[in-house]
Amino acid sequence: QITLKESGPTLVKPTQTLTLTCTFSGFSLSTSGVGVGWIRQPPGKALEWLALIYWNDDKRYSPSLKSRLTITKDTSKNQVVLTMTNMDPVDTATYYCAHSRAARGFDPWGQGTLVTVSS
Amino acid sequence: QSVLTQPPSASGTPGQRVTISCSGSSSNIGSNTVNWYQQLPGTAPKLLIYSNNQRPSGVPDRFSGSKSGTSASLAISGLQSEDEADYYCAAWDDSLNGAWVFGGGTKLTVL
Asked: In this predicted model, what pLDDT tens digit does every residue of A58-70 receive, in sequence order?
């Protein structure tokens, strides 16, 4: 059974850097074809894909946020870390991590963590 | 503004069949397969359909997907009250070094 869980601060100040950790079980990020992605959802709004890291350390980023995002993996700890710089109130959202495998997209998802950006 | 276009809302009565559309372009739906996600109120999204028309295990066969050209559709037959949720389409986009793109979501109301 695959499970994922997001962790990190619930409140960050504008201009600060957000660091979120996705801890997973039930699969290995060293298995060919496997990836972990991050997706966010502002309150009452649509899903927005942020980043994806593959088993071979290939990384993809949302073109609109690429300059602010970094995704890394620690295979030994079963963790994926997402950092987002220069946080702004518009970045207030629930941030999800999810397992990814080829055309199946994202399945399953973590429970999500709400991050509020406010001074 | 989302890359994939969905109607913001849809509705139906129990037992009815409803469809939700998802429109894209040649770089996303036109070139790649489409996935659909269901998000029940207050919960994380769940994969409902992948590769245009495949159901993960556990998803009832009342849910079906199709794709034609640069558009896709999700159909729900025998509508039930527990189907009331937000539905999102998604596809890989080959432009700009590749990216996943989502639709704006459709809120389905069971009347």
From this structure: 999 999 999 999 9
